[in-house]
Write a structure and sequence with these properties.
mainly alpha
Length: 146
């Protein structure tokens, strides 16, 4: 770690930023190093808050809306929970690396966490969209159609 010192790290980060290349596990400070985890988690949490508000407003008027959105709500909630846990694990790994630890599993943990944030956590937007469609198409067919 830091083979070329802090100046080398700073130069690398500037070069990556100038080229528009994303990076994780490093930054000019701890907050910057956590951005690949915090930013997507914040977006996903916003989706969960929107879904909760929508259900609170629309399920009271039409209880079928709650039933139609229940599975997507649970999946959305689970994704946000996993995102939170990955962010916590990333913070611990970054703190250990900053303290001089160099075990390979730490950088593997950061990459795996970033994979979750980039490839899985965006599914929260799909679950939100499904919840907000309500129950109309779910309840349209009569029971006899099944």
């Amino acid at each position: 770690m830091l083979d070329w010192g802090c100046d080398g790290l700073s130069e690398t980060l500037q070069t990556l930023n100038a080229a528009g290349i994303a990076y994780s596990g490093a930054g000019n400070d701890a907050d910057e190093a956590m951005q690949p985890y915090v930013t997507p988690l914040s977006t996903a949490l916003g989706h969960l808050q929107q879904a909760t508000a929508w259900l609170m407003q629309n399920a009271m008027m039409k209880p079928d809306n709650a039933g139609a959105g229940a599975t997507d709500y649970m999946q959305l909630f689970g994704l946000v929970t996993f995102g939170y846990m990955w962010a916590r694990m990333a913070k611990v790994a970054l703190d250990k690396i900053a303290g001089g630890a160099s075990e390979p599993y730490l950088s593997t943990k950061l990459v795996t966490g970033r994979f979750f944030m980039e490839r899985m956590l965006p599914e929260t937007s799909v679950h939100l969209a499904r919840i907000q469609t309500g129950s109309a198409t779910t309840m349209e067919l009569p029971a006899e159609a099944f």
